[in-house]
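Checklist before submission:
- one chain only
- standard amino acids only
- sequence pasted in full

Submission:
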Amino acid sequence: MASVLGRSPGRSPARRLDETDEAQLERLYKPVFVMKPSSYKCSEGQTARFDLKVVGRPMPETYWFHNGQQIVSDHTHKIVVKEDGTQSLIIVPALPQDSGEWTVVAQNRAGRTSISVTLAVDEVEPLHLRYGQEQWEEG
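Returned file contents:
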């Protein structure tokens, strides 16, 4: 028995998907840290490293900040990102001025999230060698 509208029961008429429909079909997921970095303490000259993994759809972009200032990869700050979302910020050599709050922001079209950790770099006192500390008396 055919339906009143002349089509099979349970079926809706076919129509073409346009770009808006396709965008609505794409599921978006805001960024989530599935592996969070931890605060870190080291001595001056050592390597400091923050590891994390962030997921989302589309894959989130990440941005690092030190005490509110954005950081990019340079000769002492290396940002390594793998395809699976795992990434590391490697600071070598760590210096006392690297101490403070480090924040990573993950962002995509679905949203934004961030996490902050602390780095404490202990200053190493220079080693002073004292040679010939004899005192001469004029006589």
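Reviewer check: The longest strand covers residues 111-122.
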